[in-house]
Amino acid sequence: xxxxxxxxxxxxxxxxxxxxxxxxxxxxxxxxxxxxxxxxxxxxxxxxxxxxxxxxxxxxxxxxxxxxxxxxxxxxxxxxxxxxxxxxxxxxxxxxxxxxxxxxxxxxxxxxxxxxxxxxxxxxxxxxxxxxxxxxxxxxxxxxxxxxxxxxxxxxxxxxxxxxxxxxxxxxxxxxxxxxxxxxxxxxxxxxxxxxxxxxxxxxxxxxxxxxxxxxxxxxxxxxxxxxxxxxxxxxxxxxxxxxxxxxxxxxxxxxxxxxxxxxxxxxxxxxxxxxxxxxxxxxxxxxxxxxxxxxxxxxxxxxxxxxxxxxxxxxxxxxxxx
Amino acid sequence: xxxxxxxxxxxxxxxxxxxxxxxxxxxxxxxxxxxxxxxxxxxxxxxxxxxxxxxxxxxxxxxxxxxxxxxxxxxxxxxxxxxxxxxxxxxxxxxxxxxxxxxxxxxxxxxxxxxxxxxxxxxxxxxxxxxxxxxxxxxxxxxxxxxxxxxxxxxxxxxxxxxxxxxxxxxxxxxxxxxxxxxxxxxxxxxxxxxxxxxxxxxxxxxxxxxxxxxxxxxxxxxxxxxxxxxxxxxxxxxxxxxxxxxxxxxxxxxxxxxxxxxxxxxxxxxxxxxxxxxxxxxxxxxxxxxxxxxxxxxxxxxxxxxxxxxxxxxxxxxx
Lengths: 323, 320
Fold this sequence. Notes:
The structure holds 2 protein chains of 2 kinds. By secondary structure, chain A is of the alpha/beta class. Chain A has helices at about 35-40, 55-75, 75-95, 95-105, 110-130, 135-140, 170-180, 195-205, 225-230, 245-255, 275, 300; strands at about 30, 45-50, 140, 150-155, 160-165, 185-190, 215-220, 240, 260-265, 305-310. Chain A starts with about 25 loop residues before the first strand and ends in an 11-residue tail after the last strand. Chain B is an alpha/beta fold. In chain B, helix 9 links the parallel strand 5 (about 190) and strand 6 (about 220). The interface of A and B includes residues 62 and 234 of A.
């Protein structure tokens, strides 16, 4: 009986506004497994058809992200932290699925893929902890020469377009998405073009984790086709170019300058320190880099705006301020 | 001004005759109507046709504010926006009208004087219409005196649903009479059916004919104050009614869907319905209007997208 059972294939879909639409264009593209043997032969085993999103899907995703921004940025940091932790809990429960998908996507052995997934889950937990602490680290009370309380607080930048890493389809993805939403931004994520399946499955986890719809929107397809309209979109406030190659990153940064988007450039390769010196005009994308390293806080602070308020303490009397 | 088309004068002779006439109208094929409206909604309108449609839609908007919290300042701001919807692009057409409550009609008229944008005022105890006839007529009189070019009245749905068609008919006639100005001209009368409260498509068809027989210049779907407002299907049904009415009487009547039309895509779908159902004669803001407020911003953002190639955002249009 079980031998005759028809297998049920999964239809991978986009994740936009808390829903799972197909691409508006109706297009799909073939996703193949990455193995060393397949690489040598030039083609891998077919895994699934992923939706090939269009610029209209990107536009819809921005609308969804904008709609979600008020609620998400207004939620308490503590609440955001709990929701991010919940995401880690859900990931833990679906670990086996992600191990399989990551192993196929990145050509890793089961044990290596399991280590990658564990690291990704730990990273969610790590960023979940930062939600209500980043304010103390980068904000604070400033000493000023006058009778004022002077307080700086970080606020989320807004809608952030994220070009996810091309090679690290899951740990890299988590490492760029979690810090963006931890601080209250909403995100439109372009998944790795060749290995989008872990990202699309992540959408299913996010949908069942109390994360409001629209906070994270995940698109799969051709990176350049999706990134260009997002970079020039007037209602996107920032763009993370991590997964863009050097030429594309340059093009996108020029487009992003139009409405003064905040831009996070691709990291400079640690494997080629000699390039760092000459990289001022053209950063070298390094997507193959080791995402397991300590991420630091720079991805959290990249998409924050500092608001400073001056609050009078009252006139200084003969006895000085009571503060 | 002929109040009833001569071809149908015997239909309105008595309550019984009117009921026989309205109930004698062919029943609406609801499935067919919705399928037709949905299939016309799938047309893809691109590039130059889209640019034309967006400008046409902007010029057809009755920019509306009907809130308890309306202030003279808000009405003036809205009037300024109606005259000059996109200050960054002076080629943007102005809207057709600004639609306000009667007590704001004078403010709107002062702000719009000489601009070409009309003042529309709701009246007759909008939106429920639950008031004595005297009160409703006084409401209309006030609005016309305050300078309203157009009056948006609501029908008495209670009377309509309980079958007192002649009462509804006579009320529209009375309101129409109040639309006359001292100089012999008339304010144009839009008759709101509140289709969301009429329950059936058959009722919407009957209400359309009733309104047209009573001399409405426009028939309008809804107030925007109930759950179901303008839909492609009920607008298509009303467009068919005005088409048939013109065929039979030669009198052209306008249509105004109102409420719930928020995106350019929706607006363009309605324009396709107009073009395919009644033709180009209605593709003009004298004969077709959108009752809307947030729609204008979306049209402006689409317009900016077409002219710059970049998707625009809410930061580049006004907050109303």
